[in-house]
């Protein structure tokens, strides 16, 4: 007999919202992390589900918390009403752990779940989860990549049929590679070409030969069909590899793969698009613009809805407290071209948007005068002679020193920005040289901003 459990939320939600809540978050210097897909209502629903779950079963986050959470609202059967998909882990002492999910249906002021709407697989963790109509039948499938108890990655594909979860297929590394020694597996799903059908990118890793295979696939009758593959030498594995699907130019979508390089311990970026069901690789593995010392996420730096590739030109190798980063964008007629250069200082929370006339020419030296932090910006002439063009002073708001002590009265000084901790002022060292790069006391403020909020 099917077990139906109703989780009533109205009274609990009312009490919760009347009582209020507060939260705090810490900022990281390298990047601002996206919060997981998890809000107050889901917290209440999570609490309700937990109360009726079996012993030793807990709700868990898949690893891709930017995309999914413990609790997810998804219209699986496209009937206009969201189902709730809750990911879980069952851990019983002396037995293999299991991971999976349950599906709940909305029913007025409650959510009901069925015993046949639950799936558990023997495994330690959920590495990836998503909801896509990969077989184009009008209904979304649940995609779950999990690490089994033998440390082997597997990908399960599930569908909701009425009140029952059905396993449509199970993908193991050898399904994508034909090589049983490949134990690592990863998946990414999205629209790459223009056929309006989801493309599946499956990565496998051969730990013996240090080769990573990127496969273009689709799902037919519950089986993974490989259409094309590209092989990369010497990546360190899949755990640090990031795969993104999006606009790689104004005309094309594609795949961007950031992978750790075992040769020099840095990161390498590869970009591909799909044409006639085949990968077209547009990057070279030895292009220095695609190789960087540590991982920096791809971004859309100029807000034109096209992926930009970051490349670290120089940085502090010990604590990553500052960096010059170039950004490259691809087009079919020009290839990769630099569209931006930014100096980031994460310790003192500012960045300099380098004017294009100064691309590749600036250097920065940091010093201290009493409590002030002094940044001297230099350019090198054609003869290789350094010229100080301006100095940025970060003056602490708590400073007891008279402002006049840190100002050079013979040179123009401009306050360019303020934060909670510092006032930032620029002193023009060589106005004549600065003018050559279209900068002056009137517009220099425009190139400064916070490194993070």
Automatic annotation (TrEMBL):
UniProt keywords, alphabetically: Signal
Superkingdom, taxonomy of origin: Bacteria
Signal peptide range: 1-26
Record's keyword annotation contains Signal: yes
Protein name, per record: VCBS repeat-containing protein
Species of origin: Peptacetobacter hominis
Organism taxonomic ancestry: Bacteria, Bacillati, Bacillota, Clostridia, Peptostreptococcales
